[in-house]
Amino acid sequence: MSFLRSLPPLAYFSLLIIWFGIEDTSKVWLLFLAAFPPITLATISGVERVRPEYVEAARALGASRWQVVRVAVVPSVVPDVLTGVRLALGFAWTTIVAAETSNGIPGIGGLAWATKKELRADVAVMCVIVIGITALVLDNGIRLVEQRLAPWKGRA
Q1: Pick from 82, 110, 116, 88: nearest CA to 97
Q2: pTM
Q3: Each residue of 72-124: pLDDT tens digit?
Q4: Whole-angstrom distance, CA of residue 95 vs CA of residue 143
Q5: What are phi and psi of 63, to 5 degrees?
Q6: What residues contact residue 15 under an 8 Å CB cut-off, 6+ apart?
Q7: C-alpha–C-alpha distance, residues 117 and 66, integer Å
Q8: Measured distance CA(35)–CA(43) in Å, rounded
């Protein structure tokens, strides 16, 4: 996981295009590879920090393995997983926008990249604003999900 996390997703985007073509499949794989490490690492961290007392209490009350996971582990891990999702969303968003700018793929990043040919600073600035606002909207959406699924977690 550390190896995959340390690779910049754009470094292997060319390989994904060679393997899957310029269509959506290569983009989906790119986003997956950008998002998978932070979610996985956050989940692992959350599982490692589950308080042993919760697991022991559930077992003492006669819970099966599945019930221990469902009742003690998952609720403890939810905030960490959602933090990983927030981080992954940011990585995926910046990765796809950067991929669009470097490969001329249609999208807001591709539009921002195309503005250099015509020296359209106004369009480039508008693209940056739209990219930033979209990132904020996506992040706030995850925060709303976080508030619903883990209301006990402190605000970040």
Answers
A1: 110
A2: 0.76
A3: 899 889 999 999 999 999 888 888 877 776 665 677 777 877 787 788 888 88
A4: 21
A5: -70, 140
A6: none
A7: 58
A8: 13
